[in-house]
Every structure is written in structure tokens, then in C-alpha cells.
TrEMBL record:
This is Cytidylate kinase. Residues 8-217 form the Cytidylate kinase domain. HAMAP family: Cytidyl_kinase_type1 (MF_00238). It is an enzyme of class 2 (transferase). GO terms for cellular component: cytosol.
Length: 227
């Protein structure tokens, strides 16, 4: 394994398979998977416990700054406590979506994400990782898929959780999210100029994983050092 720290940034729209690929890649390479969603959830959980209104921007930024967040394979710790299960409640989900739009909170989270990237090799996915969070990432991938395929994948995900939603409703929601992500002022979804574009429409998860792994090997080690 290469000794230097490596940062792999995976960006792309909703339903492209970023989270699944980032998790599998991190596991395969022995890197830390920076689960941004879990990080925001951890701060939202703390806000709930402290009875802080998630719309109170100043207090939320203070909490985000003070939160000590540790990421381990499949686990997350907040201020020394394992909160992996605690952050999955509907109340925490709701709070996380409210605080994720606060610019000050996002700034603090980006600082923490960069700090993790300074201590270990990481894989991180999102919508602005290669452009904003880790602009100097060793490997940048823009993972995409055609809209009908992204809707199909998200539909399978949602139904696997036992939720019922019409395909047409989901398609409209994702179209709106794409529009919002691409046009927002604060860190919009965009492909970094030096990112490799990967269309996963016709590929299985295993095939996407192998394709990304190949890119990482070529970019970081000339194919020699990774197993």
C-alpha cells in the first residue's frame, strides 16, 4: 500500500451510485470513507439533545465547530460517544436537512473533512468534493447515469426500505433536486475540469467499482502499489 495520503473525490447527481461506490472503494483500499451525511446528522443529533433550534444559524455554527466527530468503518463517534444508531432517527434526519443548508455549518464541516483528509487516505462523495472540499484531490471522478436509470435505482432503494412512492413522483423530485443542486449559489454541483467522467448507466455496481479502482490505480500508483 502506498505510504502517502491519498484523497479520492467522487461527485455526481442523486442516484448515480456515489455512496455505494465510495463505501466499497474505501473498504477495498483500506481508506477512510468520509460519510458527509452522517457528519451532518451527528451535529443535528447534538442540537436535538441541547434543545437548539436547527434554524438558529449562529448556534448551529457554534455546535458544528465544537463537535468532535470521528469516522471509523461503518461507525461514527460524536464527542467520544458511538452515535451510529442514534443518528438514524426521523427527527435527526429532519434536523440534518435543515442544518445542511446553513453556509456557516457547511464551512465548519468542510474544515473537519479536510482535517480528516490530512490524517488519513480518504474517499469522499458528494456534489462539490472535487471543486470545493478537496480541489487538490489526487483522483477526481464525476459519476453519472442517465436520468431514467437514476430514477430506477433510487426507486429500488426507497422500496427496499418499505416505502411506497410513485415512479413519476420520484422522477419529478429528482429533476427538481438536480436543478437545485446545479443552480444553488453555495457550491453548486459541477464537474471539476480535471475530473474523469464515468457514465454508470449500463454498468453493474461491481463493474463501476472495478472501473473506479482502475482509475485510482492509474492516477496514484501507476498500477503497482494497490492490491
Amino acid at each position: 500500500m502506498t505510504q502517502r495520503r491519498v484523497v479520492v473525490a467522487i461527485d455526481g447527481p442523486a442516484g448515480a451510485g456515489k455512496s455505494t461506490i465510495a463505501r466499497r472503494l474505501a473498504e477495498r483500499l483500506g481508506f477512510t470513507y468520509i460519510d458527509t451525511g452522517a457528519m451532518y446528522r451527528a451535529v443535528a443529533l447534538w442540537a436535538l439533545r441541547q434543545n437548539v433550534d436547527p434554524t438558529d444559524m449562529h448556534r448551529m455554527e457554534q455546535l458544528a465547530l465544537a463537535a468532535e466527530i470521528e469516522l471509523q468503518p461503518g461507525r461514527i463517534r460524536l464527542n467520544g460517544e458511538d452515535v451510529t444508531e442514534a443518528i438514524r432517527s426521523p427527527e435527526v434526519s429532519s434536523g440534518a436537512s435543515k442544518i445542511a443548508v446553513i453556509a456557516g455549518v457547511r464551512r465548519r464541516m468542510v474544515d473537519k473533512q479536510r482535517s480528516i483528509g490530512e490524517r488519513a487516505s480518504v474517499v469522499m462523495e458528494g456534489r462539490d468534493i472535487g471543486t470545493v472540499v478537496f480541489p487538490d484531490a489526487d483522483v477526481k471522478i464525476f459519476l453519472d447515469a442517465q436520468p431514467p436509470e437514476r430514477v430506477r435505482r433510487r426507486l429500488l432503494e426507497v422500496r427496499a426500505k418499505g416505502e411506497q412512492v410513485a415512479e413519476s413522483t420520484l422522477a419529478l423530485e429528482m429533476e427538481e433536486r438536480d436543478r437545485r443542486d446545479s443552480t444553488r449559489r453555495d457550491a453548486p454541483l459541477a464537474q471539476a475540469p480535471d475530473a474523469i467522467y464515468l457514465d454508470s448507466t449500463a454498468l453493474s455496481i461491481d463493474e463501476v467499482e472495478e472501473a473506479v479502482l482502475k482509475i485510482v490505480r492509474q492516477r496514484v500508483t501507476n498500477g503497482k502499489e494497490f492490491h
